[in-house]
Each structure stands twice: as structure tokens, then as C-alpha cells.
Amino acid sequence: xxxxxxxxxxxxxxxxxxxxxxxxxxxxxxxxxxxxxxxxxxxxxxxxxxxxxxxxxxxxxxxxxxxxxxxxxxxxxxxxxxxxxxxxxxxxxxxxxxxxxxxxxxxxxxxxxxxxxxxxxxx
Length: 123
Known about the structure:
By secondary structure, the chain is mainly beta. It contains no helices and eleven strands. The chain has strands at 2-7, 10-13, 18-26, 28-39, 46-51, 57-59, 67-72, 77-82, 91-101, 108-113, 117-122. A hairpin with a 5-residue loop joins β5 and β6.
């Protein structure tokens, strides 16, 4: 069984910073891409940032220059450093990971999601 556990959400004033963490645990052979998505009330879930196993990042235009994604492969953890936060960054943030999982007979690829962590930015 694979789990992604997020931490680091909270409330902050506009212009402030938060750092999110997401640790993967369970029976898997490899983690490929890890990423962060967010979902504001009444909105669809949207990509925030992703990072490959070779540390190549990709960002949504709305967060470029403000957010930084990183990962620690030894700890199976992905981070999202969020600076210069804006009111419109308020959302539930979800991490995900594309993994090669240990199957009963053969390994297989699967995507897993964390439970989400609330980020609230007050203007």
C-alpha cells in the first residue's frame, strides 16, 4: 500500500511564505514525477508544479518566480516553497506521485494522491 502524506499548510497574510512537504511511503520500486496541484472552492483542480526524478521542474505560469518545487529522493519527499503568496493562491493543495509499484506478479505504474492540505492567504 502506498501513502502520500502532506504537511505544512496553514494561514498566512499576502506577501508571506509557506513550505509544503509530501512524503511517500509503502511498497514501490521507483518514484518518477512528483507534483503539486491545487483546488480552490468551485474551481477545477489545477497544476501548480511538477518535478521529474532528475530534478527537472515545470511550473504553472501563475506561480513562476514565486514558487519552487524540489525533492529529496533519499526521503521520497517533495517540497513546495511558496513565497510572495497572493489571495488567489488560497486553495487545497494536493501532492501526487507517479510510481512504479510492486505488484503481486509484476511491477506496474500508478498515480497516487495525498489527502490535501489547506493554504489560506488573507489580503
